Amino acid sequence: MTTAAIIVAAGRGSRAGGAIPKQWQPLNGRRVIDWTLAAFQKAGLDHIVLVLNPDDHAAWEEFENTDVILAKGGAERAASVLNGLSVLSGCDIDKVLIHDAARPCVSMELIARVLTALDNTTAAAPALPVTDALWTGAADQVTGTRDRSGLYGAQTPQGFSYEVIVAAHLDHPGGAADDVQVARDAGHAVAIVAGDPDNIKITRPEDFSRAARLLRNEMDIRLGNGYDVHRFGEGDHVVLCGVKIPHDKTLQGHSDADVGMHAVTDAIYGALAEGDIGRHFPPSDPQWKGAASEIFLRHAAELARARGFTISNVDCTLVCEYPKVGPHAANMQAVMAEILGIEADRVSIKATTSERLGFTGRSEGIASIATAALVKP
Ligand code: MG
């Protein structure tokens, strides 16, 4: 199944104000177009076509050597869409989504809903039922009311089977409000997919601040800390951050007593406000006796991912006089990164002594402290 998105960015959008078209105006540190493109890139479509106004020379240069396929805007929107569809010919596209560049708050969930709907139909588009009362008016006076039942506010991306929408556009006499009308005029049924109230179209100047608020809210950054201690007992090795190190003592605990991995695991649970290892793997449960701590860390990382978070980085400090951690730190980093499913340069393992003070200084045990940063983009 090959998918593509066509992002129409050729318009001049004078209603939104500003010296340049709305899709090129700044929004939360990027441009409107960058947010829109990023949403579709994240959604993992096979091809993305950007339809540009032929006069936007800087944009043509900017996107020339990128993964984005460029197409020329036409005299009206339908012509722009057809040009976008045409550059995809030969790409063997099954499903195509057509989206307005001026809807930068489009969510991955909405994109997925439209794509999924196309499994069972040749055309599907998001919309929201009209909930406000509808009036007619003239000269700032209400002149009548209209029945809102059965009325929807249309959104994009509108999704189609590629062959169907290409044929429909080629046959259309022009003047359609959107691609749904083009498909319907060609006799195709169009399914309504639940729209998203946040998927606003930047039309007027005040829409920029609303879009900025929505996009800011989306970024969720979490920090968590973890602290753990295990005491020494008789033995010949310790396991620290997943690495077995020969030593004249061992760490005691219910599991393998990997104090570093426990602190990192608790930091991730902490960032998710999900308690600690004890909540998820109760020490009272005999099945976790002697368990490899990797099970706990994997669980925490999977929980973070299931909640939509990426583990941005973890930082772990081991506090002990012996064994010396330095020679094993790179190995620990690699093992922890593998379990967490992140790059090794996002995992920091370091060690300190406590200047022979306290229980760590007297080599009665090892302590560990860790921080984790989680990001939901
Ligand atoms: Mg522990």
What descriptive keywords fit this protein?
377 residues, alpha/beta, Spore Coat Polysaccharide Biosynthesis Protein SpsA, Chain A, 60s Ribosomal Protein L30, Chain: A, 2 domains, eight-stranded mixed sheet, five-stranded mixed sheet, binds magnesium ion
Architecture overview:
With 377 residues, the protein is of the alpha/beta class. It folds into two domains: 3-216, Spore Coat Polysaccharide Biosynthesis Protein SpsA, Chain A (Alpha-Beta Complex); 220-376, 2-C-methyl-D-erythritol 2,4-cyclodiphosphate synthase (60s Ribosomal Protein L30, Chain: A, 2-Layer Sandwich), CATH 3.30.1330. Helix content is 30%, strand content 29%. The protein contains twelve helices and 19 strands. The strands form five sheets. Strands 1, 4, 5, 6, 7, 10, 11 and 12 form an eight-stranded mixed β-sheet that branches. A five-stranded mixed β-sheet has the order 16-13-19-17-18. Helix 3 crosses helix 5 (162-171), helix 5 packs across helix 6 (179-185) and helix 8 (259-271) packs parallel to helix 10. 39% of the residues are buried. Magnesium ion binds next to strand 13 and helix 8.
Describe the protein's topology.
Blueprint: E1 3-9, E2 26-27, E3 30-31, H1 32-42, E4 47-52, H2 57-63, E5 69-72, H3 77-86, E6 95-100, H4 108-117, E7 123-129, E8 134-138, E9 141-146, E10 152-154, E11 158-161, H5 162-171, H6 179-185, E12 191-194, H7 207-218, E13 220-234, E14 237-240, E15 243-246, E16 249-251, H8 259-271, H9 277-280, H10 294-306, E17 310-319, H11 329-340, E18 347-352, H12 358-361, E19 365-376
Parallel strand pairs: 1-4, 1-6, 4-5, 7-12, 17-18
Antiparallel strand pairs: 2-3, 6-11, 7-10, 7-11, 8-9, 13-16, 13-19, 14-15, 17-19
Helix pairs in contact: 3-5, 5-6, 8-10
